[in-house]
Amino acid sequence: VQLVESGGGSVQAGGSLRLSCVASGYRLSSTECMGWFRQPPGKEREAVAVIYTSHGRSFLADSVKGRFTASRDSAKRTIDLQMNSLKPEDSAMYFCVAQTTRCGGLNTVFRDWGQGTQVTVS
User: Fold this and answer.
1) CB 89 within 8 A of CB 61
2) What is d(CA 76, CA 61) in angstroms, rounded to the nearest whole number?
3) How far is CA 101 from CA 19, 44, 86, in A?
4) What is the pLDDT of residues 56-112, one digit of tens each?
5) How many other CB atoms sit within 10 Å of the CB of residue 79?
6) Whole-angstrom Cα distance, residue 46 to residue 62?
7) How far is it, in rounded angstroms, from Cα 17 to Cα 8?
8) Could you give the CA distance from residue 42 to residue 106 in angstroms, rounded to a whole number?
């Protein structure tokens, strides 16, 4: 089981980035939910988005609502995070996460974590 993120980088405030996460070693259907966490320098990790893989319902943190969108593609075994209107406070390491059971929206305790991809907004 491996989660591999891509799409991070540096962008100016107001710009956009799209993060992608490929799940290898299992089908999205074997996970109940996947999502994205982020960890700014010197701060704790926080849930950004959670998406239920079967029906696609997503939950977004209040700080990113209206700017970020989570989606999934079961055939490609990927989930994406489209980030628009980026702000400097969005700068963080972003992690892809997955959980097979007992998902609870943004309160889900995730078992599987990717290595992360850096997003820097200046």
Assistant:
1) no
2) 25
3) 24, 24, 32
4) 899 999 999 999 999 998 887 889 999 999 999 999 999 999 998 899 999 999 999
5) 32
6) 11
7) 7
8) 21
